[in-house]
Amino acid sequence: MNLLIMGLPGAGKGTQAAKIVEEFNVIHISTGDMFRAAMANKTEMGLLAKSYIDKGDLVPDEVTNGIVKERLAQADVKEKGFLLDGYPRTIDQAHALDAALKELGQKLDGVINIDVQPDSLVERLSGRIINKKTGETFHKLFNPPKGNYDENEYYQREDDKPETVKRRLDVNIAQGQPILEHYRNLGLVRDIEGNQDISDVFAEIKEAIVKL
Known about the structure:
Largest sheet: 5 strands, parallel
Radius of gyration: 19 Å
Structural class: alpha/beta
Order of helices and strands: EHEHHHHEHEHEEEHEH
Subunit structure: Monomer.
Pathway: Purine metabolism; AMP biosynthesis via salvage pathway; AMP from ADP: step 1/1
Protein name: Adenylate kinase
Family: Belongs to the adenylate kinase family.
Distance between the termini: 9 Å
Helix content: 40-55%
Keywords: ATP-binding, Cytoplasm, Kinase, Nucleotide biosynthesis, Nucleotide-binding, Transferase
Oligomer: single chain
Strand order of the largest sheet: 2-3-1-4-8
Strand content: 15-25%
């Protein structure tokens, strides 16, 4: 079973990815882990990626695509299947993935898209507050400080502020739409209602995967 998981920041992708891996015994392939492993193992693409990272440059698409292809060609992935997480991030990467899978004699069985309305994600992601004295982290909605707390005693990091979160989501939506459209045209996308309890989200995902 070869799967791809998609969803906006805050949609619960990481939580659900871990559950899918445990339930279906597939190999979890996340971009960060893949880069670290390729560099540690000194693969051809890993060394190339390191040369860019060491200079503080962005790793170009062809290197990222190469690292993904290297990982997909490994024996554990061929044996168990995979769950790709955090890749592809652009439509060009999606086309590169299609080509790599074809060359490796593999195919994508499904794309799990955790769908949550951006407005509720802004609320979810911008609720984090930090106590100025203790550094303790709370969430205005899901984990507020006890009692009637004084808001002046707390602050928000710049990247947690609603306007910053909204900008980040807008960028992710713009990048993600063409990828989703591409996979929809191939009949691979399964939309999952992400604005419900974690266990209910997973029940829906599990049902969708079993039907694939």
